[in-house]
Write a structure and sequence with these properties.
Keywords: ATP-binding, Cell membrane, Membrane, Nucleotide-binding, Repeat, Translocase, Transport. The chain has 500 residues and is of the alpha/beta class. The protein contains 16 helices and 20 strands.
């Protein structure tokens, strides 16, 4: 097999950065090979992908030294549009690559953009939809999809271009177990088609039978190179020392928290310390009205995106919120913190009711896409913004706890996905709200930082905060969740004791 990707003695420093990220990196990838890039957040994995798809140096500016050759193209001298049919990329944040407003249009956008005949476009779309089992997502608005569903559409749109090389940046970060299995099938299909696949990933377990080769990165350098079988046979202690997520543990308990109907439900006693939720009804399908808004009633059950008449949550605890993609976890969190104005819900704490704007006063939410809530020009300023009164000493303490103290003067948008997540978590800690909500806080984090986040969530609960964390990571639940709440089609179907 010939080398389809050749990176020769490459060093790169992003414009505006005080130090280089990649340091004299050399890497060759053979045609048809499936390669896994792993390593801590900020180690350079995404930068490698940006070199291969040409975003460096044509979009992300900086000082690039060395040679990058992809499928015979010298990246420095090749325009991005010339690589469109050669390299396809599924980004960590799929919204950043969408061009349409609906799923059908997004799937065929690439083939349309390169001017394929209508019949070819239809055939490609039909094949992709069948291979990736996307029938339930057809005819949907992209704005109504969950994070995992958006990721699936992004994979489909790339697949429709039939590229020689497929790059995936944290493709499973927002997916539930069933969706990960479908993603694995998609990768297997690409593999049988002879495509070269390069995956930057923190979740490792599902790639065991797919990956031919594993590259470990640390601080911008290649520090490990194994055959796939050799890597997945490494002892658990070795994997932990590399700050990687477990390669085996998820298979042992991954189903325990995503299907809890058979587990004994936890009943909150009347004299227990709890937060009560009442009349949490919400629908994305707006009801027509002329003079006043009609409240939801039993007849609305079929259109409700959230249908929780009453729910008691233990106070001062970490509660994992689980469920499949699109089942209502994020909607539940948004309604709980008062972001959805049409939600009829009330929060009752110690006999005091909070509704609407008052819910915003007692809660703080870290969104799944943290780019929506990063506003300032430095990490330090971002954390200080969340405080009622600026307290730089407390700010520095939080940044140190989350491993961000060395980045406090950096612009938040210049950070990696995992680093941005930690900045948002730092802002939540600084806000001082009674209820703290986290939507997939570890989706872009390596194992070491996941452990740190779990520790911080426990500390928040120990400081009289009620913490709800929507997650697909069973490792996180095992590390810190006192209780597990399952959401299924907008309903709270059960709450059980966790593993923490």
């Amino acid at each position: 097999m010939k080398d389809i990707v050749k990176i020769d003695k490459v060093s790169f420093q992003y414009k505006g950065s005080s130090k280089g990220l990649l340091k004299d990196v050399s890497l060759s990838v053979k045609q048809g090979q499936t390669l896994l890039l792993c390593g801590a957040s900020g180690s350079g994995k995404t930068t490698i992908l940006r070199l291969i798809n040409g975003l460096i140096p044509h979009y992300y500016l900086g000082d690039l030294k060395g040679v990058v050759n992809v499928a015979g193209f010298d990246i420095k001298n090749t325009q991005l549009y010339d690589l469109a049919g050669v390299v396809g990329t599924v980004f960590q944040n799929p919204r950043s690559q969408f061009f349409s407003v609906d799923t059908d249009g997004e799937i065929v956008f690439g083939p349309e953009n390169i001017g394929l005949p209508a019949e070819d476009i239809k055939n490609r779309a039909a094949d992709v939809i069948k291979d990736m089992n996307l029938y339930k997502l057809l005819g949907r608005s992209l704005f109504e999809l969950s994070g995992g569903e958006k990721q699936k559409i992004a994979c489909a749109s790339v697949s429709a271009l039939l590229p020689e090389i497929v790059l995936l940046d944290e493709p499973s970060s927002n997916l539930d177990v069933n969706a990960i299995k479908e993603l694995k099938k998609a990768i297997e299909i690409w593999k049988t088609q002879g495509k070269t696949i390069i995956i930057s990933e923190h979740r490792l377990w599902y790639l065991r039978d797919i990956v031919d080769r594993v590259i470990y990165m640390d601080s911008g350098s290649l520090k490990g190179d194994w055959e796939g079988k050799e890597f997945f046979a490494l002892p658990d202690k070795t994997i932990r020392n590399l700050c990687l997520r477990p390669v085996n543990i998820e298979k042992k308990f991954i189903g325990n928290y995503l299907n809890i109907q058979d587990k004994e439900s936890y009943e909150i006693k009347e004299d227990a310390d709890f937060i009560e939720l009442r009349d949490f009804f919400f629908s994305y399908k707006k009801k027509p009205y002329i003079f006043w808004r009609k409240k939801f009633d039993l007849a609305d059950a079929k259109i409700l995106s959230l249908n929780i008449p009453r729910l008691r949550l233990p106070r001062n605890a970490v509660i994992g919120v689980v469920g499949n993609n699109g089942t209502g976890k994020s909607t539940f969190l948004r309604c709980l913190c008062g972001l959805e104005k049409d939600c009829t819900g009330r929060v009752i704490i110690n006999g005091i009711e909070y509704h609407g704007k008052k819910q915003l006063d007692i809660s703080y939410m870290v969104m799944q896409d943290v780019n929506h809530q990063l506003f300032t020009d430095s990490v330090e300023a971002e954390v200080l913004l969340s405080m009622d009164k600026e307290d730089k000493e407390r700010c520095n303490e939080i940044l140190t706890q989350l491993g961000l103290d060395g980045l406090k003067d950096k612009h938040p948008m210049a950070l990696s996905g995992g680093q941005k997540q930690r900045v948002a978590i730092a802002s939540a800690m600084a806000a001082g709200a009674k209820i703290l909500l986290f939507d997939e806080p570890t989706s872009g984090l390596d194992y070491l930082h996941m452990v740190k986040v779990a520790k911080m969530l426990k500390q928040l609960a120990d400081s009289n905060k009620t913490v709800l964390v929507s997650t697909h990571d069973p490792e996180l639940i095992k590390l810190c969740c006192d209780y597990v709440l399952q959401i299924d089609n907008g309903r709270a179907v059960g709450i059980t004791l966790g593993s923490a």
